[in-house]
């Protein structure tokens, strides 16, 4: 989970909602144990679904998109965010990374959401495709470098 | 759709995103309809031509242009007035032949490709903005200027800049030679 160079690790996943819930994009820094984080991201989907149904008929505004801390394990903290089109973003952060604050996580999700919107506007991108975009990768890279 | 010339343009604008997305949807649909890139390119060119022969009158009505006396003035008019009016960008113009009938417009920013990062792998020779070439060609033809218009370079294909080449084929007629 930790190499000598990084103070912690961050993993980001974008999961397409209806109804297959398969990942459109997963990125981990560092890349060891990536499989384990696929698993963590996937299991957190249940929690996301719970939160969404709990919100029920609540008005959806920007803050409701951000689901906050989904659940802490002893090693990691998992955060969630869901768009109005029910695309889910999940972020798994090392528990040792205490410097990361709630509003920083929020702004990371917002950046992800904005970049995802740009991808959707690409006429050659079909919703549900895996995301292969240099601009998106660059954005995620720089975001994760700031965190680690 | 005709408006009295000289009247200030309606301040109500259509969203840029809508326009860019519409154009993208058009190209994507053509890609589904035609297998070969050349077919898509020529279809875009024909569509652009249909737009250009109509757009020229709108342009002449809304811009206070004087008669252009040379190909060079015409090229400047296209870049500095027409592009500015319709796309909000101003390509730079340079003359690329000693004879004075070949020009190239270098587009620094191209709103049509706002959301397109690069062409899909299977569409390597697609000229995404070929509509523009048709528009220019059609408009010039309506003011009695025959020209060939093509993309010489394209950022989407990996070139450094996006460059449109205009080659005027005949001398301009003296009489009603108002230009786009």
Question: Which properties best describe this structure?
Answer:
heterodimer; A: 148 residues; alpha+beta; Beta-Lactamase; 5-stranded antiparallel β-sheet; 4 helices; 41% helix; globular; B: 180 residues; Muramoyl-pentapeptide Carboxypeptidase, domain 2; golgi apparatus (chain A); endoplasmic reticulum (chain A)
- Order of helix and strand elements from N to C terminus of chain B: HHHEEHEE
What is the average of the pLDDT values of chain B?
87
Radius of gyration of chain B: 16 Å
CATH C-level of chain A = Alpha Beta
Spatial sequence of strands, sheet with the most strands of chain B: 1-2-4-3
Average of the residue pLDDT scores of chain A = 77
Question: How much strand of chain B?
Answer: 5-15%
| Biggest sheet record of chain A | 5 strands, antiparallel
Terminal residue distance of chain A: 12 Å
Order of helices and strands of chain A: EEHHEEEHH
Q: What's the CATH topology label of chain A?
A: Beta-Lactamase
The rounded Rg of chain A comes to 15 Å
The poorly predicted ranges of chain B are 174-178
Keywords (chain A): Cytoplasm, Endoplasmic reticulum, ER-Golgi transport, Golgi apparatus, Transport
Subcellular location (chain A): Cytoplasm, Perinuclear region; Endoplasmic reticulum; Golgi apparatus
Protein name (chain A): Trafficking protein particle complex subunit 2-like protein
Pfam families (chain A): Sedlin_N
């Amino acid at each position: 989970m930790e190499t000598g160079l990084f103070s912690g690790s961050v993993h980001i996943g974008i999961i397409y909602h209806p109804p297959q819930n398969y990942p459109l994009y997963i990125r981990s820094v560092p890349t060891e144990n990536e499989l384990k984080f696929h698993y963590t991201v996937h299991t957190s989907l249940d929690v996301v679904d719970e939160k969404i149904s709990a919100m029920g008929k609540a008005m959806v505004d920007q803050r409701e998109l951000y689901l906050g801390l989904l659940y802490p394990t002893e090693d990691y903290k998992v955060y969630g965010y869901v768009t109005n089109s029910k695309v889910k973003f999940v972020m798994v952060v090392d528990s040792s990374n205490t410097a990361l604050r709630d509003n920083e996580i929020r702004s990371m999700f917002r950046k992800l959401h904005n970049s995802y919107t740009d991808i959707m506007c690409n006429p050659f991108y079909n919703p549900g495709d895996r995301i292969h975009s240099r601009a998106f990768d660059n954005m995620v890279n720089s975001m994760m470098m700031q965190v680690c | 759709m005709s408006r009295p010339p000289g009247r200030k343009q309606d301040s109500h604008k259509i969203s840029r995103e809508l326009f860019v997305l519409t154009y993208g949807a058009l190209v994507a649909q053509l890609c589904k309809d035609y297998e070969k890139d050349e077919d898509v390119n020529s279809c875009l060119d024909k569509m652009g031509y249909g737009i250009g022969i109509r757009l020229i009158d709108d342009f002449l009505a809304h811009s206070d242009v004087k008669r252009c006396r040379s190909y060079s003035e015409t090229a400047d008019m296209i870049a500095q007035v027409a592009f500015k009016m319709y796309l909000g960008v101003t390509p730079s113009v340079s003359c690329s032949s000693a004879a004075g009938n070949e020009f190239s417009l270098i587009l620094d920013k191209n709103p049509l490709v706002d959301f397109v990062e690069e062409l899909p792998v299977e569409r390597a020779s697609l000229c995404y903005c070929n509509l523009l070439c048709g528009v220019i060609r059609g408009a010039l033809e309506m003011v009695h200027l025959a020209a060939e218009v093509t993309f010489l370079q394209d950022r989407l294909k990996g070139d450094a800049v996006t460059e449109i080449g205009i080659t005027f084929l005949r001398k301009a007629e003296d009489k009603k030679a108002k230009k786009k």
